[in-house]
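Let's practice the habit of predicting before peeking. Look at the sequence and jot down your guess about where helices and strands might fall. Then scroll down.
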Amino acid sequence: MAVFSVIKLSELEGAKRIDAKYYDTYYLELEKKIKKGKWDYLRNLIVFNRRGIQPRYSDIPTKYRAVVSQNILEDFLDVDNLPFIEENFFNSKQSQEVKIKQYDILIYTTGANIGRTNIFYPKTIEAIASNHVNIIRADQSKINQLYLGVFLQSKIGRYWTDRWASGSDQEEIYPWDFERFPVLIADVYIQKEVANLVLKSFQLIESSNNLYSQAENLLLEELGLKDFNPKYEKTYTANLSDALSAHRIDAEYFQPAYEEVIEKLKGKNIELKSLRKFILRIQKGIEPGGEKYQNVGKPFIRVSNLSIYGFIDRDQKYLSEEIYQDLKENYEPKQGDVLLTKDATPGIAYVVKEEVEGIISSGIVKLQVNDREINKEYLALCINSFIGKMQAERDCVGSIIFHWKPEQIKQIKIPLLPLSTQQKIVSLIQKSHEARKKAKELLNVAKKTVEIAIKKNEEEALDYISKSIKKS
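Done guessing? Here is the structure:
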């Protein structure tokens, strides 16, 4: 049955829009609610609204970062992968107005994930917003900053983005469009409790990061590598026999720093075993072709969707149910599998914690590991540490996109500590993942509270958040 809306010419002229999407019946019905409730336009509730600028990136690490659109995810900002920018650029006049403050609201303004919103939570990172990211700051005398961030991050906030976004080839939304967003000014108690949940979730994310760092530090201490910095030599020689044996003639492969790490471990009497000793099965993912990608369906897990903490929704692609059913027997990760990236950003390892309905791409391998020989979480940590990363760097080939061959992956050396020591390290990793999972749960409660207040009423929202707080 066809659904249509009838709009007066005067209303068309007022909105300066003639596209049908703008007048979808859903938006018109929502507007009726707005007129009856405690709503106001965003322009009356904020003190700052500005899009970022094109950063000048740095190839070497600096103290300063940029938040780019790829860092804005569905739940929390991807703090670990913020690109570095030049110090002079960060301190330049043009960067001053787009420096990000703690709890600034950051919105993705262009492309497939337009409208995606995060709140900037780190206290110690100095960053600016890039030219595809918008910064918004609330007038705290009128609305709670964190509540407003959750409102814009909720489904309703995304609906308004969908309505106001424009463009034929690539949709875009501008600062003045955000100012037209209607916002529910919920009861002060609701705003406060939503903000408290967000703050708790940020604390848990930082706790998760700290616990993982503790696990890595403990690993390096036990291996005698805590303060070890391998020296990268500018000039060195290699034997022709070694080059022929390795089937490599590129200088990088013979960088002495790589062997220095292995020799250091041997000097500490640390047992080293090739990864293949622990692998029961190795399976590379598949590439069904870009023409098979969809906006909804079963997740197609690419390298960009995997981190040391788990799955992330960066530019997530999907496959149809039919393709998923055809591929899942061989290419769906199972609980307990170790996933390892082999292309583009090789050397990211993660142990699957729960059942996943999705397909891994050809840039990822899944490993079934004999956990009687080695703890899987410990194995993943070894690969994620600089010990594994240096071996990946050495093996990888490719002028534009790096590739780590499965046969090379099998040969990487894993330092073995006693199982009791492995378990101490793994205990920290497990706590890290539990804290991150809890953080996501709290953020989801905050978002759902806002959505209930909008779709139903504030009484039900209060009841929901009160019950959720007691459970947590």
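How did you do? The chain is about 40% helix and 15% strand.
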